Amino acid sequence: FSHAAIREANRSLFGVAALPSLRLDRADVVVTVGADVLETFGHPVAFARALSKKHDSHDHFAWFHVEPHASMTGFKASERVSVKPGTEGYFLAYLLHAIAQGRSLDGRASAHLAAVPAVTIDRAAETTGIARETLSKVAEALRNAHAPLLVAGGVSIGHESGLDVARIAALVQYVAGMHGNTLDFARATDYSRVGSLSDVDRLQARLDAGQVGTAIVFNVDVVSRLSNGDAFGQSLGKASFLVGVGDIMNATLAQCDVVLPLSHAYESWGDVEPVAGVVNVIQPAIKPLFDTLSDGDVLLRILTEMGAVPETTYQQYVMDRWAREHGAAAADLVKTGYIQTSASAPSLSLRDADHRYTFDAVPAKQPTLVIAPSVRWYDGRSAELELLKEIPDPLSTVSWDPWVSVGVETAAALGVDDRDELDIRVGEWSTQLPVRRQPGLQRDVFMIQRGVANPPAGWSRASGEALAVVSDIGVRKTGRKVPTTILSSSLFEDGRGAVPGSKPAHFGALAKMHEEHAHGGHELKHEDVSFYPVPDYPTYRWAMAIDMDKCVGCSACVAACYIENNVAMSGREQHLRGRELSWIRIEPYYAEDGSSLDTVPTMCQHCDYAPCEPVCPVYATYHNNEGLNVQVYNRCVGTRYCSNNCPYKQRRFNWFSWEHRPYPMDLMTNPDVSMRGKGMMEKCTFCVQRIRKARDIAKDEKRDIKEGDFTTACAAACPGGAIVFGNLLDEKSQVHQWAHHERSTRLLEELGTGPAVFYLKKKGSAHGA
Length: 769
Known about the structure:
Blueprint: H1 4-14, E1 19-22, E2 29-33, H2 44-56, E3 62-67, H3 72-76, E4 79-82, H4 88-100, H5 107-115, H6 121-128, H7 132-144, E5 148-152, H8 162-175, E6 183-189, H9 197-208, E7 214-218, H10 222-225, H11 229-236, E8 241-246, H12 251-254, E9 258-261, E10 270-275, E11 278-282, H13 295-305, H14 314-326, H15 333-336, E12 338-340, E13 368-372, H16 386-390, E14 404-407, H17 408-414, E15 420-426, E16 429-438, E17 445-449, E18 469-471, E19 474-481, H18 508-520, H19 526-529, E20 542-547, H20 556-564, H21 572-576, E21 585-590, E22 597-602, E23 621-623, E24 629-631, H22 641-645, E25 652-653, E26 681-682, H23 688-700, H24 713-717, E27 723-727, H25 734-739, E28 744-746, E29 757-760
Parallel strand pairs: 2-3, 2-5, 3-4, 7-8, 8-9, 13-17, 14-16, 20-29
Antiparallel strand pairs: 1-6, 10-11, 11-12, 13-18, 14-17, 15-16, 15-19, 20-27, 21-22, 23-24, 25-26, 28-29
Helix pairs in contact: 1-8, 4-6, 4-7, 4-8
């Protein structure tokens, strides 16, 4: 993903081929068009953090996300707007003329405005499929905003008129006064040394012409990732000598004459500049495990052999450069991990209008295939990592297998359901994939993730952008059912009240009792119907709180839990049997019409009145005096009664022995956490090993554990700060404040279990306050 269309748009309009930073912290109205800013576009972690702060503030804030497919970003926006694939140019052209109306524009700006075809609201609505009321609402919000922010990217610029989309979006940014305010060119991402697929096309022509002697393919899998990967592989074979450099064996490296294995980033020195003026240090956590070199050392060795540079290490090379460029500040660079220097915005002036817009020349034809990036493996480069396959896709809950997302209405029209196989054809390209129904995906739009297979589309000749939208595809059902690792069947609200704060539609006798007490004016108290003694926590009651407004569903918490707690990767066959071992999962619940989504991080709730405890015949699970639902592994005899009695389904049984994780994950075992053997139950422990470490330190200092001494792995990894952990008895703690918030509720608390995990309901949603 080179953002070639955005760079070309900014170059042709302003003379600066840059990708500006998005200043969400300054914005009061945001419109994102296809740019999945919470997943793979720009800086998702920074955006999630800024969005979290927006939720904390009481300032007016509205976020519209316009997309032709279905993404986490869309469902987490204030309002999700579906647009027909390839028609984003009409939407933006309407917005541009609506915003420019009544504004004083200079001659060049007026010329650019005149060059963009005027699109009426009726034509925009008819072409894009967006309701007139929504179009008017978005335009009005941008016109009245004090600090508007609009960005187009991702799949919305990944079609033949994508450059038009990027240019019109850049004009909206200019006319609405976003430059220097909500768009920061001073802290732009530096893509000046990044090519595009047009450069790859030129390279292939040189290879075919026999103009390349030695070719070095450096840490990229062109054979698997390009739409014409097989043909490009044949072209590579025409080089006299082919050298492959990489950290994962792939299809491209397999056909090289020589393969040089790279060190991992954890074994290497280096630096990275995510935005202009901010330099981050890469430094090794361990020595290289094998006879490998870092990417910088490989290049330096080649240059040294050529006599171009004196012999040196890459560590010394970057340190010398830091000293030259940053002076005295370089001494603190390794200690602090980063330095930030002043950065001035480049001079931006609108150039003469010289572009002919063609977005209305060829209308998009249905059905359409959208090839979307993956929050798990980006463009496919990490698709071979087993850990990422174990973690389910947050929208579909599919783990190991490839699939095609099909809208509920489309699936009904085709007569297919989950796991039915579809044959999808585009020209000579075809693939057969199982169906996963996707709420919110519009009619006749099919979605696959990039990295599943060689994409069927090429790239735009105008910009060099990879195409992500393919129109007029052929789709038919094969009649076969395909085993697929779908880990949840409860995508829709099933009436059980699983979303925290939702009103259960039925709960049998308990629901009836609640209703009778509500109508009778009485209050139903848990102690009225409980056989449990009231718990006594003398010093600590460990608890967790999760703000559902801040959770973006990214699954970083899931990955962190796997690594911290030595959670075994059970593999595809066990996932098909429902034997995944993850201690925390992101459960998606959609509204029946697919208009909204709640992502609910669920783990062991460490209940005050835990149903799992009294049924264990050997006292392997019990409640301690700090509120933890403890699991004693070497007592467990594997009856699985506790799992049967858990209403949250958060206990995992080891059907096999997983003491030795697959290589190289066995090198990442946390020594503070024991490995669980065959026949044992396991579950979330609230990172008890971290609690113990904090207690030891506090004991040495003759004090109690205080706020900030530690947190759980999931809370530490959350980019939006949606998870907090601490002592519920400490009234000054964050977890106490969230637990006692007016939006606070608990998962299935109607069952009387007394969970220690509190959820803050979403503001203004069907389930919120």
